[in-house]
Write the structure tokens for this entry.
Amino acid sequence: MTARRPAAKVPFVLDFLGRAYPEAGILLAYRNPFQLLVATVLAAQCTDERVNRVTPGLFRDYPDPRALAAAPQEAVEEVVRPTGFYRNKAKAIRGLAAAIEARHGGSVPGTMESLTELPGVGRKTASILLGACFGACALPVDTHVGRVSYRLGLTASKDPVKIEQDLAAAVPKEKWWEFATRLGWHGRRICVARRPKCSECGLASVCPKNGVR
Ligand code: SF4
């Protein structure tokens, strides 16, 4: 089965992912788009679990963009310190909050263009927001989605933008969000970065990298 054209294996992959990870979704805890946006920034180089331990206190003290934008840098640094790179992250989320307040009256915008115009917000983060909070057909390519897609032969690229284009061409649009979130879960649980668990993998029969180290 490994000789299939890349797009030909997509129905098999979708079917497997649907059975294996029916509940897949965003692991970051959030109650509104602002909280998810901030949590996504804090999740860079950090686990979602650690971010989820920090954000309740952060949003209790600074519940909206106006409050976070006005917060002292040092105070925010102290709260987000456990997520690593805390000085840069504190600066980034304060700047993001200020831009949302100034440009959008405190409401996170709901388009790719306006989201990616916010400081520090790239395509991946914008796609997460659009899919999770605005019900859009979004295809966020994070490190896990990129890695598993490459190993499965769904893309020959390691560039997230090109990977997104390849996946968007191969996966039906209405399935983009579930595909990305479920493939991400597979990457976290089975097709991990080092020593993927190929012997436990339900996609092994269609994977050119099955057993390859
Ligand atoms: S067979 Fe191995 S490399 Fe291929 S998707 Fe499964 S875990 Fe990843």
